[in-house]
Design brief:
Layout (H helix, E strand, L loop, with lengths): L1 E5 L10 E10 L2 E12 L2 E7 L14 H10 L4 E10 L9 E2 L3 E4 L27 H10 L5 E2 L3 E4 L8 H9 L4 E3 L5 H7 L3 E11 L10 H25 L1
Parallel strand pairs: 1-4, 1-5, 5-11, 6-8, 7-9, 9-10
Antiparallel strand pairs: 2-3, 3-4, 5-10, 6-11
Helix pairs in contact: 2-5
């Protein structure tokens, strides 16, 4: 079964039918994880809003372990993470799409692994290629005629504040193409559970200092409002192919 983790702007999987709410208990949170299970053209899909119902959980407070564990527990074997990002790459202005192929983690203090306590032996994962290539290619094909950057480096910062211009310059020197706050540890936790994982990123603003315009939530909201119909159409095509 395919799982979709919706980010900022994607809280309602309106294209799913027969939607039912499933409460999944996990070892990582006293609160159950709420997952919407539905069907699209005969294919089962599990949808999880990353920031919770009502978009109330900030990036650094998301229980990534509980979310991924819950999806795995109900039979999900592949996950598409939808992420709002700031654009660093020249082709990633507001409204542009990307399917990154690499990631650099600048976040800190997050519970980032299942391999921490009660282990029989120290466990490592190969994270050379953090995104599943077959799923990435499905996403790229699902974009159809919609322009998409078919790769790139996702920089995951801590949040919830946006970055300074100097921090963005550092990310540019590091080779990053987009910046968000939720790509990690989500991708690594999926790998630890053996889940195929890929990211569909929507640029909602130029990153700090790249444009002279002030970054405002109102402007970001306008891009989200216009871009989510495109995201939904891409997800539908990806589900059909899955």
């Amino acid at each position: 079964m395919l799982g979709v983790i919706g980010g900022t702007g994607l809280n309602d999987p309106h294209f799913l039918q027969e939607v039912q709410l499933q409460q999944v208990a996990t070892p990582y949170d006293p609160q159950s994880v709420q997952i919407l299970k539905g069907v699209f053209q005969g294919r089962p899909v599990a949808f999880l809003p990353r920031h919770g119902q009502g978009h109330k959980i900030p990036p650094h407070r998301i229980n990534y372990r509980a979310n991924l564990w819950a999806l795995h527990a109900i039979g999900v074997n592949a996950v598409i993470g939808v992420n709002a990002v700031g654009g660093l790459h020249p082709e990633l202005g507001p409204g542009a799409l990307a399917v990154p192929d690499q990631i650099i983690d600048y976040s800190w203090g997050r519970e980032h692994t299942f391999f921490a306590d009660g282990l029989e032996h120290v466990t490592h994962i190969d994270f050379t290629h953090p995104y599943d290539e077959a799923l990435r290619q499905r996403l790229i094909r699902a974009c159809g005629d919609t322009p998409v950057l078919p790769g790139g480096v996702y920089a995951c910062t801590q949040g919830p504040r946006l970055e300074s211009a100097a921090e963005i310059q550092r990310l540019q020197r590091d080779g990053c193409d987009m910046v968000g706050m939720t790509g990690m540890p989500e991708a690594a936790l999926a790998r630890e559970l053996g889940l195929a994982y890929a990211c569909l990123a929507l640029s909602v603003n130029w990153a700090a200092g790249i444009s002279d315009e002030e970054i405002t939530m109102e402007a970001i909201g306008r891009v989200l409002d216009s871009g989510m119909s495109t995201i939904a159409a891409i997800l539908q095509r990806a589900i059909q192919e899955f």
